[in-house]
Every structure is written in structure tokens, then in C-alpha cells.
Specification:
Order of helices and strands: EEEEEH
Helix content: 25-40%
Strand content: 35-45%
Number of helices: 1
CATH architecture: Roll
Strand order of the largest sheet: 3-2-1-4-5
CATH topology: SH3 type barrels
Radius of gyration: 13 Å
Length: 76
């Protein structure tokens, strides 16, 4: 199973971007996106940013994921 998490671009160096999710950063290729810029939210798969999404959708998805994880951690 693959899980795509919205990631915010915080730095760009040629065709490689540093993305951030809740303080965790990693590098990803932006070769597949024509107009990626700092501040954009992207979906990353297999090390490549494959799609941009709007900030509202990205933040809502991250909040939903936090809520699911919090509910799951309460299981016995």
C-alpha cells in the first residue's frame, strides 16, 4: 500500500526540492512538475513530486491524518 502525504516545498535547488511534513524534511525530485515553487504543497510518490494541491486541501488532509492516528493510538 502506498500513502501519499501532502508535503510543503521549503527549498528548491535545481530539480530537487526539500519538502516538510510536520517538521520532518526530505529531498524529492520536482522534475515532473513544470512550475513548482517554494510554499507549494505537493504529493510525493517514490521520491518524485507528482502533483500540486491547494493549501486548504493539504492542511485539511494533514489534520484528518492526525485525527485518524490519534484515534488509532487509543485502541487497546
Amino acid at each position: 500500500m502506498c500513502l501519499a502525504v501532502p508535503s510543503k516545498i521549503v527549498e528548491i535547488n535545481d530539480t530537487v526540492a526539500t519538502v516538510d511534513v510536520d517538521g520532518v524534511t526530505r529531498e524529492t525530485s520536482i522534475l515532473l512538475l513544470e512550475d513548482a515553487k517554494i510554499g507549494d504543497y505537493v504529493i510525493v510518490h517514490a521520491g518524485f513530486a507528482i502533483n500540486k494541491l491547494d493549501e486548504e486541501s493539504a492542511l485539511q488532509t494533514l489534520e484528518d491524518m492526525r485525527n485518524i492516528l490519534a484515534a488509532d493510538s487509543g485502541r487497546a
